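One chain is below:
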Amino acid sequence: MSGNGKKGELPVLWQLRFSHFNEKGRWALDYKGIRHTRRSLAPGTHSRRAKQLGGSGTTPLLQIGGRTIGDTTELIAELERIQPDPALYPAGEAARERALGLEDYFDEQLGPYLRGAVFAALLPDREALVSVTTQGLGSGTRRTINLFYPVIRPRLRKALVEAPGGAEVCREKTFAALDRLESELAGGDYLVGDQFTVADLTAAALFFPLVSPPEFQYEIPDPWPAKWEEFRRENADRLGYRWVEEMYRRHRGPSAEVTS
């Protein structure tokens, strides 16, 4: 596809590379083969920049066809509208409602909590956190974040770990979402019918920090901090964990990003 930007311009995805919600947006664009450019933002200042661009302060932020979309559910809905094939919404009203309901569940009941669990493990490891959150940015940005890390760290903990309920609650909610995933699969390959849908994409993308699939396009800690590696090992034999690996193998595919 040649692109859907304003006046023939390619869509622009403003992103944080190390983010599961951003991975959801990237995956949708790549799955549909929609050529686009990406602009990586610096953590800490990304919210202000996203607001300047016309969003609400969150990423990913997609500029497409003269619109600015800052919600991944709305982003996928727009991609379905402008390029229905390959479809992420299943045919039939009941199936579509089920897929959208599961998308909403994983967005709300997994996304913030898994992020909190990840950052609870990452925050004590200054080197790992700075490395993964500043990838693709200039050396000056990395030096600045490293320098101000003693100030940044408590703010991140408050916003990402404490706000959802603390590290233990975040881990428990992640377990609960994995339970829900396995229950909804009920032995099948996909969450809705026999095809890959927005429900599968959402669940798999949001679980990426737990599974660390090799198909993820950016840097992942290797190894993760010990506490997160332990958490991953506790879940590695579960059906849901293996299912996420399989979704990445089957459906992640190549990037549709256009680079200069």
Remarks:
- The chain has two domains: 6-82, 93-251.
- The first helix runs from residue 20 to 31.
- The longest strand covers residues 12-15.
- The CA atoms of residues 99 and 138 lie 39 Å apart.
